[in-house]
Amino acid sequence: MDPLRRSPSPCLSSRPSSPSTPPCEMLGPVGIEAVLDQLKIKAMKMGFEFNIMVVGQSGLGKSTMVNTLFKSKVWKSNPPGLGVPPPQTLQLHSVTHVIEEKGVKLKLTVTDTPGFGDQINNDNCLRPLDIEFLQRLCRTVNVVPVIARADSLTMEEREAFRHRIQQNLRTHCIDVYPQMCFDEDINDRILNSKLRDRIPFAVVGADQEHLVNGRCVLGRKTKWGIIEVENMAHCEFPLLRDLLIRSHLQDLKDITHNVHYENYRVIRLNESHLLPRGPGWVNLAPASPGQLTTPRTFKVCRGAHDDSDDEF
């Protein structure tokens, strides 16, 4: 995707660049490397926060996917066959859990959007509602699209569907994560290019283990066999998990805080000048239209409150 194709793109402003001042010659060690130990100790004490919002039609397996992603019962879902109708509401529903692994704590908040798109047929492609929703969303959050229940498609159907979605994203200028304009070096560009080629990821969720060739694997049992969640020959769930947790979690948080939230904050500050002046009025110099999308010291895009730096 070309990050320069449209002016309101959240990618137009860049993250603070590395200092161009040449390094100073040191006469001996002063202990600067100890900062890394300090950061690690602080991180282990405080833990991390991460917010995820899942969007999609009812019955696509969003709850199972989240549970599979973190290998925990993060979200309770109604077992199939009980005939429990999905909630007929458009209110957001969030749950928060603390997950700990090897002493590292993660405060995870998952937000569901029940009822979204249930009356829309998008079997073949993105519909107008999806397109408008994604165009707005990509300026506010980091969007990672997936193909749910990928096991219901043949390999040829999966690739054809992926190609149509990629074309829709390009045609309608929808920037999904990882955005090309945020690649900081050649290594980022190589890794992220491979990920961008596979988006939307074709995933299968399962929170039960099965015995396959003498080993326990996460998978879903069908009359044709076991669909292994972590087997790349079966689905691309490992790519999604690695992106969200193992390789890009901190980058997702940084972009959300430095780009999306700062963009939102600048817009709200400038909107305040349209309101009647009252007690406690602070006279802020209004920004030009260009500054609304390209603040000089930050990138642009997400969040509606201070905790939004932990969303994606």
Automatic annotation (TrEMBL):
Per UniProt, the ranges with Low complexity bias are 6-18
What GO molecular function terms would the record report?
GTP binding
Q: What keyword terms does UniProt attach to this protein? A: Cytoplasm, GTP-binding, Nucleotide-binding
The record, for SUPFAM superfamilies, names: P-loop containing nucleoside triphosphate hydrolases
On the tree of life, the source organism's domain of life is Eukaryota
Q: Where is the Septin-type G domain?
A: 1-271
> Could you tell me which residues belong to the region Disordered?
1-25
Q: Where in the cell is it found?
A: Cytoplasm
Cross-referenced CDD domains, in alphabetical order? CDC_Septin (cd01850)
Q: Which family does it belong to?
A: Belongs to the TRAFAC class TrmE-Era-EngA-EngB-Septin-like GTPase superfamily. Septin GTPase family.
In Swiss-Prot or TrEMBL terms, this protein is called Septin 12
